[in-house]
Amino acid sequence: MLRPRWLVVALAFQSACGSSLPQEEQCVTAVYSTYNYITFAGTPAGGLWDTRCQNPLKVASIYAASETYCRDSERAAGLAQLASFCEEFGHVELLPRDAVAENLTEDAIRNMRIVDYLELSRGDPVETPVLISASYFNVMFKTLDSWQYVSWSHHAFGYIGYAYWAAILFLGMASHLYSRMIRSRKARAENEVESNNYPTTSTSSLNQWGTEVAWMYLYKSRGGTRGGRLLALDWPNPTDQILRYSADRTGVMSFVNFPLMWLFGGRNNILMWATGWSFATFNIYHRHVARVATLQGVAHSIIYVVIYIRVGFRRRSTHLDFLLIFDSHSIVFEGHEYWQYLWPAVGVWVLDRGLRIIRLVYCNIHIGVTGRNKVQMTRSRMSYDQDADVIRLEVTPGTKVLRPKPGDYYFLYQPLQFVGWENHPFTVGAWSYEPRSDRSPVNPPGKQDGVLDVSQLPLLSDNLNIEENQDEFQETAEKTNVSGMNLIFWIRPYDGWTQKLRQECLRSKDQILDTTILLEGPYGHNFPLWRYESVLLIIGGTGIASAVPYIQDHIRRSAGGGEISEEETRIRDIELVWTARQTAFLHDVASRELLPALGREDFQASFYATGVSAAPPRRDLAGLGCEISTGRPHIQSLIMSRACDASAAGSTLAILVCGPAGMADEARAATHLAMRQGYRSIKYVEESFAW
Questions:
Q1: pLDDT tens profile 271-286
Q2: Could you tell me the domains of the chain?
Q3: What is the DSSP letter of 452?
């Protein structure tokens, strides 16, 4: 059975005009769509819009059928629409009724030849106007009506995805707001810890949500139903109907996902502030939506290829088939149908890039009004330790008002390279302050001369304006003879950009190199560990960058070095369990950034080395109350022991984990086991070890 060519043209035209027609215009649209199957003699003899708008026989037939099957209001609206389409798409005018009036008298219409579907051959042009049969008109009208509903359904199912994410985000924002209100009330009334309401999102729950989204989207990609039957486009073969439905729906829904992908993947996402969720959380959402959109796009393409193959098997494909299967994309975009999804994604992209540039300027350039160096830029120095296999990067930001805090991370640029636009995220491992003397080389391990501990200087409070912060910093800096702040990053060289940094260090003298690194940030969020009486830090490798800032913050808060508005630390004991491959890395950080904490009564540390290092220890840590063990710690026993101690003391326990996936999985499972055994006053926090 042949597939009607007029339907191919009608559907292509519908795509050009958009997927939704006003009800008053559907009647005339059905009329002139049926005449695409009939060839009329005379001029013009070719061209879809030329013949539809200028061929006297075809135009007279359209007028006659419109007066026969359409109401006055439908006829007026439909013909006005056709006239506008003739000008917009065909760049010609529609012949007025007066030009063909001799063929539109009552007698002329009554005596017109009535033709049915497939009655006339396209190869035999008719010499007079003809009137389509009522059944022919009804088939086309029902086809277009069904197509209207199906096209609406494609977008409606896409909006279901928006509703799904809106519900999730609303719950997250409500939970975040409620938690802040609870903490505020408790702080004012009882000054007690409210640990059970802080909004965190575990990896398992995120994966579960993403799986549900993927399943729902894939399920909705199937052909829709109405009244218990398939919505037929009057294609002769029901299989073709299902394929066409599925192809279009998967394509539309893939495009609908574009704004969500860009929104969830942006660094400057206002939803992170509104929900309290981290960039890593939204990055998981971004990846799930991108995977679903990719699967939908692939399915869309494959199904259309199947349709084209089926057409070729039945008969030789015509230009109209090719138009339907491959050219409808360009026709749709000419009608701007999908710009409602494209422009929001473009807007999110432009806004995010603009804010990135603002952050770059803010972090790296300071313009003063006094002094000799009115313009100050970011300075940086890096060194590579072969024994530790770690690059130590110290960056002095150009700005004077950065407020480093635990959980901060920056995107690092190396602008003088060939691909200077590349950037990579790294967590701030620690920060210190420089004396006013000239910049000295990176301090050797164990030497603290020339670097001030962060507890000597207060961080700048978020509730003070920039001018007040800067004045306060300058006043404190003058008293302590401080010229700037160093942000410290630990970078493990693998491949790509980090490997290039390693090679640059190896080519330099003493493997120390002054370079140009720009900062973009700060990003990230910090967890209030200071609200818990007991803290356990389980760290692997360079994940120590997430732990040291919390340790520094604890020392500063306990020493009263914070702002008045900041909470005092409630930590009574804090334990660090750090596992690394190289003992040299353990010695390096322990003798530098961890040195102020080692030996404190409220701090204890356990170090584990999993690799064999031939390098002798640079400093004996036994005198500081800690030693390096070989192998790995038994995380389950460690967590169970700390949970038992906290429960016996009636205190709350916070467990922060940052390390390889295996370590995080083991710690998560051990925490779950402890909570199942009745140790409920535990808060588990997992920091991203990798993106």
A1: 988 998 888 889 899 9
A2: 5-132 (no CATH), 187-337 (no CATH), 373-525 (no CATH), 527-691 (3.40.50.80)
A3: B
